[in-house]
Amino acid sequence: MSLLSVEGLFAWYGSAEVLHGIEFQAEKGAVTVVLGANGAGKTTILRALCGMVRTRGRIEFDGRDIAGMRTDRIARLGIAHVPQGRGTFGDLTVEENLRIGGYAAAVADTDRAIEQWYDFFPRLRERRRQQAGGLSGGEQQMLAIARALVAAPRLLLLDEPSLGLAPRITQEVFRALSRINAETGTTILVVEQNAHLALDIGSSAVLVDAGRIVAQRPAAGLAHDESVRRAYLGY
Ligand SMILES: Nc1ncnc2c1ncn2[C@@H]1O[C@H](COP(=O)(O)OP(=O)(O)O)[C@@H](O)[C@H]1O
Ligand SMILES: [Mg+2]
């Protein structure tokens, strides 16, 4: 069953149309990977889901059409967004950043949610009083993910979580995402350039080109499909 179903979705920046009637689904409890070249429209898809760009079309989340809703209302319905570049506040401490995650989604017991994610990411607990700006890139990405999870979302959107991270750290981030999915059942939609790692943890892949969906396919075996490999995996 799909938790998210997008149909005939258009999006604009000013008068420039950048999504041209796209359609895809994210299965409940699964990890769905969005692949595509630079400028294909991947970030815009996530922004459209969060009500951050002007859209037309249908975005059905858990049976309800959320297209055109305000961003804060969408967050309270259970969609959390880890944007490209992470969006953590460097001047604030780790814990203050996590509190913002609870505040944004009006979480009832933020302290408890934060403790839960400290258990999951012990390094964040060790660094709770430190400024986020002083963390390593990998720790900042973990913080951005934990901040989104404090809201206990049903759908977690991630925009290129591996950007700027060393391969070993990227692997750690993907292992964490896989565990989060397995242990909490959170549905994940992840945009990623590092297609190999993403396809490893994903069950379905959405292929985007120039503002259109080319295909949505099971992730298994996709890395061995030659045409897909050349167009989307870059080798
Ligand atoms: N703020 C913006 N204003 C105008 N055009 C934008 C803006 N952000 C992105 N675009 C354009 O929209 C298209 C899709 O961009 P984007 O969704 O960021 O692609 P991707 O994330 O796949 O690299 C690109 O042609 C890009 O130049
Ligand atoms: Mg992008």
From TrEMBL:
Keyword Flavoprotein attached: no
Annotated SUPFAM superfamilies: P-loop containing nucleoside triphosphate hydrolases
UniProt keyword terms in alphabetical order: Amino-acid transport, ATP-binding, Nucleotide-binding, Transport
ABC transporter domain segment(s): 4-235
Single GO molecular function: ATP binding
Keyword set includes Transport: yes
Family statement: Belongs to the ABC transporter superfamily.
Protein name as it appears in the record: Branched-chain amino acid transport ATP-binding protein LivF
